[in-house]
Amino acid sequence: MMVSVGPMGERGYTLIEVLVALLLTSLGLMGMAGLQVVSLKQNQSAYMRSQATILAYDIIDRMRANVAAVENGNYFLASGTEDSDCETTAGCTDAEMAAHDVFRWQARLAEELPLGSGLVCRDTDPDDSTDGDITTPACGTSTDTDLPIVVYVWWNDERASNAVSTRLAVSASL
C-alpha cells in the first residue's frame, strides 16, 4: 500500500517565503524613507542658498540705485543704522540711505537665514577662504575702486553634510 505525502510535507515553505518577502519589502521601504529624509535636507539647503543669493543681489541693487554712496565707501559698513527719514521719497542723504540699506539688508539676513549675517566690501580675491566665518565675519579692507564689490553672506546650514558655517560670495561691478 502506497501512502501519498502530498501537500502535508510542504506546509512550512510558504510561510518562510512570505516572511522573506515581508523582510525584503520592509528593508526596501526603510531605504525609501531614508532617501526621503536626505532629499528633504538637501532641499532645505538649496532653499537657503537661493535665499542668500536673492539677498546678496538685493543689496547690490540698492547700491546700483545709490552709486554716489558706493563711490564714497558708505556701503562698506559692519552694521548700518535705521533711519525712518529714508522711508520717504527724498528724506535723507546718500550716506544715510546707505547706512539704512545696510541695516535693512542685515535685518533681512537675520530673519530669513539661520544665524544669517553679511558684509559688503572691495576684495582682491572673493573666493579665498580667509574672509571669516559665521562667528567672525570678515571682509577685505581695500579702498581701491578698481576692485570688484563683493557681497558675503554667511549662515548656519547644519543640514549640509559636515558643514556648520556656509558662505556665499557674489562679485559685482556697478
UniProtKB/TrEMBL annotation:
Q: Which InterPro entries match?
A: N_methyl_site, Pilus_4_PilV, Tt1218-like_dom
Signal sequence range: none
Q: Where is this region: Disordered?
A: 120-139
**TM stretches of this protein:** 12-40
- Which parts of the sequence belong to the Type IV pilin Tt1218-like domain? 35-103
| Pfam family of the protein (one) | N_methyl
Keywords from the named record: Membrane, Transmembrane, Transmembrane helix
Protein name as catalogued = Type IV pilus modification protein PilV
Its gene name is pilV
